[in-house]
Specification:
15 strands; 4 helices; alpha+beta; tt1808, chain A; 7-stranded mixed beta sheet; globular
Length: 196
C-alpha cells in the first residue's frame, strides 16, 4: 500500500486505478498519468473568495438541473478513446469549483468526463499549472467554459469552448457583473466576491 509520496516513481505513469489505492496525506492530481503535487492549503483570502463564489453559485443553481461541486472533488478527464475504465483514465484533477449539467457524469467517485464549467482560483504556486497545463487539459477534454480567478488582481479570465478551442472573453474586474455565455441567467456581482 502506498502511504508516502516518496514510494511513487517521480517519472512513473499512473492510472486512476492506481490513484484509488493510495493512502497519502498529501493531495495530488494526475495529469496524463504524471503525478502533480497540489499546492499547500490555500490562504485565507483564497478560502473567503472560494466560499463567496460557492454561495453565490449555489443560490443561482438552486432551481437548476446543473449541480455545483467544490474541491476536493475528483474530476476524471477522458482521453480521446473515451474509455471510462479506471485502468484507462490517466487524468484526475480537483478544480476549485465545477458545474456539471449531465447527471450521467456524476457517480460516487466524483465526475467522469468534462464538467460544463470549471473555476480555478489562482494563487502563488499554482498559476502556471492553472494557466498552462490545466488550460490545455480542459480545452482538450471539452470543458465548455473555464474561469481563472486572479485573486491578486481581483479579476476573472473567462474562456468559452468554440469548435474545440478556448476563445478568451473580455476579462471582468471587481466592479463588473460576471456573466456566462453558457448560463445566460447567471449574474455575479464581483464586488461582493472580492471583498478583502
Amino acid at each position: 500500500m502506498i502511504t508516502e509520496i516518496e514510494q511513487l516513481e517521480e517519472n512513473g505513469i499512473y492510472s486512476y486505478a492506481d490513484y484509488l489505492t493510495w493512502r497519502l496525506k498529501e493531495r495530488l492530481e494526475l495529469i496524463k498519468g504524471k503525478i502533480m503535487k497540489m499546492s499547500p492549503a490555500p490562504g485565507t483570502y483564497h478560502q473567503r473568495v472560494s466560499l463567496r463564489l460557492t454561495n453565490a453559485l449555489s443560490s443561482q443553481f438552486e432551481e437548476n438541473a446543473c449541480e455545483l461541486f467544490v474541491a476536493p472533488f475528483d474530476v476524471r478527464l477522458l482521453d480521446k478513446r473515451k474509455t471510462d475504465s479506471d485502468n484507462d483514465i490517466y487524468t484526475v484533477v480537483q478544480p476549485d469549483l465545477c458545474i456539471i449539467c449531465d447527471p450521467a457524469k456524476i457517480d460516487e467517485k466524483g465526475c467522469i468526463g468534462a464538467p460544463d464549467l470549471i473555476i480555478e482560483l489562482l494563487s502563488p504556486g499554482n498559476s502556471n499549472k492553472e494557466m498552462r497545463i490545466k488550460f490545455d487539459l480542459y480545452e482538450e477534454a471539452g470543458v465548455k467554459e473555464y474561469w481563472m480567478v486572479n485573486l491578486n488582481e481581483k479579476c476573472v479570465f473567462r474562456y468559452s469552448l468554440i469548435e474545440d478551442r478556448f476563445v478568451g472573453l473580455q476579462p471582468v474586474i471587481e466592479t463588473d457583473i460576471l456573466t456566462s455565455p453558457l448560463f445566460p441567467d447567471l449574474k455575479l456581482d464581483l464586488k461582493n466576491i472580492f471583498v478583502s
